[in-house]
Amino acid sequence: MAQQEPVTSNPVTSTVEDGVAIVRIANPPVNALSAAVRGGLVRAVEAADADSSVRAIVVTAEGRTFIAGADITEFGKPPVPPTLPDAIASVEATSKPVVAAINGAALGGGLEVALGCHARVATPSAKLGLPEVKLGILPGAGGTQRLPRLIGAVPALKLMTSGDPISAKEAQSLGILDEVAEDALAAAKALALRLAGGARPAAASAATNLGDRDAFEAAAGAMAKKGAENPSIAACIDAVRAAFDKPFDEGMAIERAHFIRLRDDPRSKALRHVFFAERAAARIPGLPKGTQPRPVARAAVIGGGTMGGGIAMSFANAGIPVTLIETSEENLQRGLERVAGNYATSVKRGSLTEEARGKRMGLIEGKVGLEAAAGADVVVEAVFEEMGLKKEIFGKLQGIAKPGAVLATNTSYLDVDEIAASTSRPGDVLGMHFFSPANVMKLLEVVRGRETAPDALATAVEVGRKLAKVPVVSGVCYGFIGNRMLARRTAQADRLLIEGAMPEEVDAALNAFGFRMGPFAMTDLAGLDIGWRIRQASGKKSPVADALVEAGRLGQKTKRGYYDYAGDGRTGVPDPEVRAVIERVSAEQGVTRRAIPPEEILERLLYPMINEGARILEEGIAARAGDIDTVWLNGYGWPAGTGGPMFHADSLGLPRIVARLRDFAQASGDESLRPAALLVRLAEEGGSFAALDEKAAA
Ligand code: CAA
Question: Interface pTM (ipTM) of the complex?
Answer without folding.
Answer: 0.96
